[in-house]
Specification:
- With 365 residues, the chain is α/β, with parallel strands linked by helices.
- The chain contains 14 helices and twelve strands.
- The protein has a six-stranded mixed β-sheet with strand order 2-4-1-5-6-7, sandwiched between helices.
- A hairpin with a 3-residue loop joins strand 8 and strand 9.
- The two termini are 22 Å apart.
């Protein structure tokens, strides 16, 4: 299951620096002027997963294959982006293809780095971005309404359902609220997602702070955190500059550097975990002499559905899943020890996979 997160924000808030750190490359040109990112950069990043290394060591796996997450660096948005200002429309379209949106807000003071609005106010920055996305959604929905009304009057049930959801979204947006705050019935959730609204996507606020505030944040990031709480969202404090430096160090140097800053781990690890949590995702593992691998699934997926993430044939021909909980696998030193202790379970089609399960699927071809 590929997770794709759009990194958005005003120009010069640290998006490209953060992207470079995430991908450990210099794909995105980080420069002190608006629109230095002309095409959206896409980075495929390994998801940090310490449990995978432990499992591989126990099983003697020759290869370790982590789960992956895609980050898309979207060019800086400005006021009027929904009407094509700056490079607006071109990049708003790129956001539609993503599963979640990470709003990067500038929470540091640096007179050497220009701010497109002439001031540093991260909450106002978030308002500008949100407003542009809402205006883009309004325009998209209004264009669809006439055709949907015509089809609905002709007895098209699917069009009638879509029209009802469009009206719900328009009501929300016209009230100045993002579409994600609308209450949608579970049965309508799939159709709601098909509207592809920019403001219906799960949202994470990233507070880009100076080095001295990397561990606890500052007054500016506190204001963003307060805003996130009001929006029923989450926020993460990160120093993009520090993360870009950390990304270039080897493991030993990285640990020493982070310790001097009072950090237990890179901020990017927290960012990725929050993105997973935001989308209701979790991990299960397949482990053997050949490879140890992490698989991303949605919370609540059954064993057959989880098997289908590996290959659709696994889901279609599912028989059972040989399952060991991660703590038991480690405590009993692997599959054989778990079997001997009676801790390997045979789970059927109704089993809901738990985070950290070590699984082997039996299926008919």
């Amino acid at each position: 299951m590929a997770l794709k997160v759009a990194i958005v924000g005003l120009p010069n808030v640290g998006k490209s620096t953060l992207f470079n750190a995430l991908t450990q490359t210099a794909q995105a040109q980080a420069a002190n002027y608006p629109f230095c990112t002309i095409e959206p950069n896409v980075g495929d990043v390994a998801v940090p997963e310490p449990r995978l290394d432990v499992l591989a060591k126990i099983a003697g796996s020759k290869e370790i294959i982590p789960a992956r997450i895609n980050f898309v660096d979207i060019a800086g948005l400005v006021r009027g982006a929904s009407k094509g200002e700056g490079l607006g429309n071109q990049f708003l379209a790129n956001i539609r293809d993503c599963d979640a949106v990470a709003y990067v807000s500038r929470c540091f003071i640096n007179d050497d780095i220009t701010h497109v609005e002439g001031r540093v106010d991260p909450v106002s920055d978030l308002d500008i971005i949100e407003t542009e996305l809402m205006l883009a959604d309004l325009e998209s929905l209004e264009k669809r309404t006439t055709a949907l009304e015509k089809k609905a009057k002709g007895g098209d049930k699917e069009a009638a359902l879509t029209l009802a959801l469009v009206k719900k979204a328009l009501e929300q947006l016209n009230a100045g609220k993002p579409a994600r705050k609308a209450t949608v019935d579970a049965d309508d959730e799939k159709a709601w997602q098909m509207l592809q609204l920019l403001t219906s996507k799960p949202t994470l606020y990233i507070c880009n702070v100076e080095e001295e505030a990397a561990d606890k944040g500052n007054a500016l990031s506190d204001a963003v955190a307060k805003r996130a709480t009001a929006d029923n969202a989450k926020s993460v404090v990160i120093s993009a500059q520090i993360e870009s430096e950390v990304a270039m160090l080897d493991a030993a140097e990285r640990a020493e550097f982070l310790e001097t800053l009072g950090l237990e781990e890179p901020g990017l690890n927290r960012l990725i975990r929050e993105a997973y949590s935001l989308l209701g995702l979790q991990t299960y593992f397949t482990v053997g002499p050949k490879e140890a691998r992490a698989w991303t699934i949605s919370v609540g997926m059954t064993a057959p559905q989880s098997a289908g993430v590996i290959h659709t044939d696994f889901e279609k021909g599912f028989i059972r899943a040989e399952t060991i909980a991660y703590p038991e696998y480690v405590r009993l030193n692997g599959e054989n020890g778990a079997k001997e202790a009676g801790k390997m379970r045979l789970e059927g089609k109704e089993y809901v996979v738990q985070d950290g399960d070590v699984m082997h699927f039996r299926f008919t071809s």
